[in-house]
C-alpha cells in the first residue's frame, strides 16, 4: 500500500493523532453522560426555581418581559400555556423535539428533567444538543393561569468566543502536530535513504566510501555497523582478488613449465633427457594435484556448516600414526623425532585434525637442518589440551612471522610449496575452537603451540 517508509510513518502518526482525538471526544462524552449530566440538570433546575421564586415575590407586571430578560442573560426559554401556545425567548432552539406528554406533566405541576434523562449518544454531547427536550421544566403560576416553562443555558452564545478559541486551538494543534510528524519522519528517513544509497554503492563494488554516523540511537548504531560491514566486505574483496591472483600464479607457473618441458621432450631424442623431462612433468603434476586438493580443502573449511565434529579421537595415537607415516622423510635427513605424549581423548573431526598436525610435522621436517631434532609434546589440564612441536633451523624474520598463517605466503621465494599448509592448519584449529601460536627463541628454535578445549569430560 505504501511505497515509501516516509509515507508509512507519516500516515501512521497522523492516523494516531486523529484516532486519539476521536477517542478523547468519545471518552469525554461518556464522562459528561455519567458524571456531569445530572449535576448540570440540577444546576439549571435550581436557577429556574429561583427565577420562579423571584417572579412570585416581585410580581413583575409583565412575565414576558421577565423571560425576555432571562433570554438576554444567555438562557433559552420556551413557555407553553394551557392552550398549547408556545413562546420562545433568547436564542432559538435548533429543533422543537419536546413531547406533548412532557408538556402536560409540567402543566400538571410535575418537574421535567430532560437534561438528566437525555439518552446517551456516542458522537453527540448532550451538553451542546440545542433542542427543546434537552431542557428542564417547571410550572409557573400567572394571572392568566399556569404555564409550563422549559429552560436551558445558551451554550452556543455563552461559549461562542470559547468555541472560536477552541477551534483555533485544535486547528493549530493538528497543523503543528502533523508538521512535526512530517519533520520527525523525515529526520528518521533521511539517514535510511543514505544507507540505501550506500548499499547500492556496495552492490556496485564501492567499498571505500563511508557513511557519516550522525546519531546515537538505533539508526546511529546501524550506521556504525554498516561501516564495519563495508570495511569487512572490502577486506574480503581484497582477499578474494589476492586469492584469485595467487591461485592463477600457482597454476600458471607450473603449467608454463610443463609446456616448456613438453616442447623440449618433442625436440630431443636423448633417452636420458626424455626420462628426466618426464620425471619433471610428473613431479609438477603431482604438485598441481596437491594444490588442487588443498584448494578444495580450503573451500570445505570456508563452508564448514556441513562438517561434523563428533569423532572420538585418541590424540596421542593419532600423533604416533602421523610420526610413523612421516618417518621415512625424517630418516632421509637423519632427523630425530622425540615425542612425549600423554594419553588424551578429544571430540572433533579426526580427518581434519590429522591434516593439521601432519602439516606441522611436514613443515618441521622440511625446515630442520640435517641431523637435527624435532620435539613433540602433548599435555592436558582440566580445561585445555596443549600440543607443541619444536625444531631448530633457519631464523624467521619478524615480517615473515607476522604473515606466517596467510594463504599462499612463502617464507622463501625458493620454497617449492604452495604456501597453504599453515593457513589450512590455522583454519582447522579454529574450527575446533582452539588457537595456534608461533614462537622463536634466540637459539633459532621455532615452536608451534596448539591449544584445544578439553572436551572429553
Give the SSE map.
Elements: H1 5-58, H2 63-72, E1 75-81, E2 86-89, H3 100-107, E3 112-113, E4 136-142, E5 145-153, H4 155-158, H5 160-203, H6 218-267, H7 271-302, E6 311-314, H8 315-332, E7 336-341, E8 345-348, H9 350-367, E9 373-380, E10 384-392, H10 398-402, H11 421-431, E11 435-440, E12 445-453
Parallel strand pairs: 7-9
Antiparallel strand pairs: 1-2, 1-5, 3-4, 4-5, 6-8, 9-10, 10-12, 11-12
Describe the structure.
It is a single chain. With 457 residues, this protein is of the alpha+beta class. The protein has three domains: 5-158, no CATH class; 218-302, Orthogonal Bundle (Helix Hairpins); 307-453, 2-Layer Sandwich (Heat Shock Protein 90), CATH 3.30.565. It is built from eleven helices and twelve strands. A five-stranded antiparallel sheet has the order 2-1-5-4-3, sandwiched between helices. It has a five-stranded mixed sheet with strand order 7-9-10-12-11, with helices on one face. The chain has a two-stranded antiparallel sheet with strand order 6-8. The longest helix has 54 residues, at 5-58.
